Amino acid sequence: EEPAQTEEFEAIIARNDRIEPRDWMPAAYRKTLIRQIAQHAHSEIIGMQPEGAWITRAPSLRRKAILLAKVQDEAGHGLYLYSATETLGTSRDDLTRMLIMGRQKYSSIFNYPTPSYADVGTIGWLVDGAAICNQVPLCRTSYGPYGRAMIRICKEESFHQRQGYELLATMMRGTAEQQAMVQESVNRFWWPALMMFGPPDGDSPNTAQSMAWGIKRDTNDALRQKFVDMSVPQAEALGVTFPDPDLRWNADRDHYDFGEPDWEEFWSVVKGNGPCNQQRIEHRKRAYDDGAWVREAATAHAAKVRERAG
Ligand code: 3HC
């Protein structure tokens, strides 16, 4: 590393400017970006599974059309984010193989089952809501392609969050059975949604460096707190409660106090022992294998085109 290059890199970070693909960057900066953006992309693609399971069973054409659009959006988010990762010198194919081999992660939230139709609304409201809390600051992340991908993703996540909330509000105006379905779904997804923000700052090996490099603009705990503060009034408006006896407004802090997530459960799910980890990876592997002929045909066609072009 030339001192001049390091100086230039540090100056760009210090003035909150963007690092672009052709700029010099420390190898560790490149490595942690590939790690985080690839995981983000994997999360979008794996996240299609829990919701996709409800497309054929949606209760109306309108709900089916909305859910189809949302799942297609998630595929698009995966595409933007794999493309951003490829600007760092890795390939989508390598990343997919690392995901399938369990050498790269994806968000823990998608390892929970979606047995109830209300889960489609809860995922939109809470999971996409948490994603918005975490992704809006990423629009200002120091790596150009990542930040620019976030701008469109955040706009589409807002639609995801609104449609989920509206679905639940409709059910809450329905029968007692529908209201119970919503509350049961919220009870299952509340704590896993808090875990989406990552471990407590004190147990986060990447946060300090990611903040120093302007990759992260807020810490895990700060964003988790923001999400709780945002969600409680929405739950009250919906008429549902969160399964946390310690949840209460703290006027001194001007924030909600809330209980401690089960970090044993969190690390167990992250390590692959969640309710659906195996099923999600097997599904992804099947889709990858089933798509091999398309990749081979496209590669053969591209070679012919190059040959003809001489
Ligand atoms: N699920 C799985 N792994 C997690 C995790 C979670 N919820 N939270 C943390 N981890 C992993 C980290 O990846 C890291 O492991 P690694 O070093 O092997 O990558 C380890 O646990 C320690 O966590 P850190 O806090 O040190 O890691 P980060 O600084 O990377 O912070 C993060 C974790 C907040 C998730 C950060 O990576 C991030 O902001 N990522 C981008 C946003 C994202 O991926 N959101 C989840 C996807 S949500 C989504 O797509 C939903 C929507 O489309 C529906």
TrEMBL record:
| Record's GO cellular component terms | cytosol
Q: Which domain of life is it from?
A: Bacteria
Instruction: Identify a single GO molecular function assigned to this protein.
Output: phenylacetyl-CoA 1,2-epoxidase activity
Signal peptide range: none
Q: Which Gene3D superfamilies match?
A: 1.20.1260.10
Biological processes annotated in GO: phenylacetate catabolic process
* NCBIfam families, per the entry: PA_CoA_Oxy1
What's the protein name?
Answer: Ring-1,2-phenylacetyl-CoA epoxidase subunit PaaA
Native organism taxonomy: Bacteria, Bacillati, Actinomycetota, Actinomycetes, Propionibacteriales
